[in-house]
Amino acid sequence: MRRNLLLTTMLAVFAVAAASAQRQVNEADGYRLLVAPDRADGSYGRGDEVRFLVSFEKDGAPVADGELTWEVTKDSWKPKTSGVARVSDGRAVIGGHELDEPGFLQCRVKFVTPQGHELRAMAGAGVDKLLIGPSMPEPKDFMSYWKRELKKQAKIPMNIRLTPAPSTDPGIAVFDVQADCEPGSFSAYLAYPKDAKPGTLPAMVTLNGAGVKSSRAWWAVSWAKDGLCVLDFNVHGLPNGEPDSYYADLENGPMFEYFLFGRDDRDSMFFHEMVMRLIRAIDVITAQPQWDGKTVMVHGCSQGGAQAVMAGCLDPRVDLVCAEIPAMCDHTGMAADRASGWPLLVECDGEGAPDARQLKAARYYDVVNFARHVTVPTYVTAGIIDSLCPPTTVYAMYNQLKGEKHMLEHPTTGHILTSQGEDFSRQAVREFVRRERDTGR
């Protein structure tokens, strides 16, 4: 009876997961490997046993007998347990795992085919995830520091220069934008419907993920088609529209690992420049005659997701935040013996002790601390098997948000953008704009 109940539970879990599990399934040489938590929603409480269920097939039929290696971690952090799971009739159970603190468990399963190809499958499980707190307190002068820094930039005239640029849509006007800011240069693309009248368009600032690249005219156009005035800027203030080799040479040369520049000091850290350009982007778009004078929204993924939350904290003009798989959350995770988010700003010595200077500086760029001051509607996505921006770090941020908030989990994907995430954000934007128009704000 117990075996039949277990089999029924496993089949039910896989039925729920199958539709969205494409990125979790690994296939080679006729083999197919899948792993999922034994609860369809992947949610547990402290002290609950978390079991991971494995499905293993060959040419569409259950593998009768075999062995798989596995490891389970605290969301890609230590401790790590590992072992061998015995497969019977295409199924295996990896059990006996629990957490005594809010967080996530991550399970990795591997199999090497007779032809030598390694299959990998991953699954995550959340344990009291809505109770995950920050790893360290906010610096006492956090907001006063940023208010002081932004006042410095406010004294610098924008000196906006607009140059017509090619558009991927005949109905959308595009401009290359240059301006001045505290770090020096500011570079972006502006896009809006050609027939827009002055004072009619909600504003959207779209925020770039990590990398050294041009601003994205095509992305600004894609949002402008929804009747928005859109600005997409690059965090380095680089010229737009150069050949790919121009940006690649910078990324592989003088700007290699730019995200670690100056990490010993809050004033010299690269991300200080990023924040200054972020706020200048809002200055620039709200200076456009097409802006309706009231609505400002921000959207970004990964590094851009971090910027979205920062903007929601630092700029009262922001009305809506969309942060997909946000980076830069809980830089100080190691202080609480757990994972940290990209870009791992704080180094640890051989004994695991964090660098004191980096630990202090990183807290001024921790999105967890910015989130505490965000009161506007915020939409967040998280990859439950994301090892670059682990879900523990994203939820540590999400749980600090003070206003209306919404979470979309990607149970079977890591640090990748998904159509579901984009739809989630676009629908949030459309609904917000519709609601604002209906209320006549």
Which labels suit this protein?
alpha/beta, nine-stranded mixed β-sheet, five-stranded antiparallel β-sheet
Q: Which class of secondary structure composition applies to the elements?
A: alpha/beta
Query: Separation of termini?
Result: 61 Å
Whole-angstrom Rg = 23 Å
Q: Give the strand order, joined by hyphens, for the main sheet.
A: 11-12-13-15-14-16-17-18-19
What percentage of amino acids are in beta strands? 25-35%
Number of DSSP helical runs: 10
Q: What's the mean pLDDT score?
A: 93
SSE arrangement, N to C:
HEEEEEEEEEEHEEEEHEHHEHEHHEHEH
User: How would you sum up the global shape?
Assistant: globular
Low-confidence stretches: 1-24
The count of strands amounts to: 19
User: How would you characterize the largest beta sheet?
Assistant: 9 strands, mixed
Structure report:
The chain has helices spanning 2-18, 142-154, 217-224, 244-252, 270-285, 303-314, 356-362, 367-371, 391-398, 419-439, and strands at 26-28, 31-37, 43-44, 50-58, 61-62, 65-74, 77-88, 91-97, 103-112, 118-127, 161-165, 172-181, 184-193, 201-207, 229-233, 291-301, 320-324, 378-383, 405-410. Residues 1-24 have low confidence and may be disordered. Helix content is 26%, strand content 31%. Strand 18 (378-383), helix 9 and strand 19 form a beta-alpha-beta unit. It has 10 helices and 19 strands. The strands form 3 sheets. The protein has a 9-stranded mixed β-sheet with strand order 11-12-13-15-14-16-17-18-19, sandwiched between helices. Strands 1, 2, 4, 5 and 8 form a 5-stranded antiparallel β-sheet that branches. Helix 5 crosses helix 6 (303-314). The relative contact order is 0.12. It is of the alpha/beta class and 441 residues long.
